[in-house]
Amino acid sequence: MPRDSEGREWTEATVDGRWLRPAPAAGPQEPRWGHPDGIQLGLHPLTGPRGLLRLYTPYLGQPRDRLLNFIAVEPVPAGGTERGFSELERSRLDDVPGLRIWATDDPDDTRPQDPRQPSRGRVAVEDGVETLTVELLVEPFENGADVRVQVVFRADRPHEISLAAFRQPGSAELEACILTATMGNWARLRTLRLATEEVTARELWPRYTDVHFAEHARFGVDRLARDGGAVTVSAIPDELEPHLAEHAPGTKEHWYYVGVPAVQTWRADDPGPALVAQVNGRYTYWMSEALIPGGIAFENFEIVEPFRQGRVLTFSAEPLAQTQPHGQAHGADAG
């Protein structure tokens, strides 16, 4: 029987109709949902830090347990600027790093649940399209924020996932609740596609060579691409064959890219004037001094705006070759 990241046995998620969902069996279940051959969502204790949503993209040629990116939940209390960090805070429930996140059938029942006993999600038909909805509760943050995240998959859009943050009763009022894609360095995302221009990580931070995060670069709503009443912003790698890159000695193997490159995109309908897209960058991989092949790359990739209850943001990952001519990407620089 398969085992989770803590070595305990569980039953893997299974295909049920058109969806991948936790198995309808007794005992511990893998917390994983989505399209069998498309984008998928997973939670700890799947491999990786606690306090993060995992995004899997097997259609990019990646093994079952190799994820493309993480999504962190980072609420900001009203009147403040400092974020809570779902990955970095220490749990008040069991005193280990990372807040607990679990899937539930009843978002009004906030009692912590075993993530190995997840909700299977709710299947429905909306506007003629079948959907799978998963409700995720997040342990309350040190700053007083208490939020849940609703995840929706659409049967007609196998490469995208929609996420909406909700302020729970009793939570501190919120300035924002940022859902940030946190691991752009694995895919070595280096080009940001805006409305009329493309901006590269090297242009944004031409002299940055430290081991920390380069400061955020921000792009207002007027600089973002329009798609009807929505805005979009895409982060793109600059290598056609990232799996062939040469890594610095000592680079941990989990930083080696696997599969074909992809364009990662955030979409926001009905954008307000205060909406911004943000990226920061790293020159070395997280928690290491190992240089990133090709030089500095984006790490966190996000949309930030004043908090709106249930505001939906959509994240997608499309194979690079299907979204732009090959000539717009190239091999890694020596960096």
Gyration radius, rounded: 19 Å
Low-confidence spans: pLDDT under 50, at least 5 residues? Answer: 330-335
SSE pattern, N- to C-terminal: EEEEEEEEEEEEHEEHEEEEEEE
Q: Name the structural class.
A: mainly beta
Intertermini distance: 44 Å
Mean pLDDT: 94
> How large is the share of residues in beta strands?
35-45%
The description of the largest β-sheet is: 11 strands, antiparallel
Region (Disordered): 1-36, 98-123
Biased composition (Basic and acidic residues): 1-11
Explain what this protein looks like in three dimensions:
Strands 7, 8, 9, 10, 11, 13, 14, 16, 17, 18 and 21 form an 11-stranded antiparallel sheet that branches. Strands 3-4-5-6-12 form a 5-stranded antiparallel sheet. Strand 10 and strand 11 form a beta hairpin. It is mainly beta. The longest helix has 4 residues, at 184-187. The protein has helices at 184-187, 201-204; strands spanning 14-16, 19-21, 32-34, 40-42, 52-56, 67-77, 101-104, 122-126, 129-138, 147-154, 160-167, 174-181, 189-193, 198-200, 213-220, 225-227, 230-237, 262-269, 276-282, 297-304, 311-319. Mean pLDDT is 94; it is low at 330-335. Residues 1-11 have a biased composition (Basic and acidic residues). Residues 1-36, 98-123 are annotated as: Disordered.
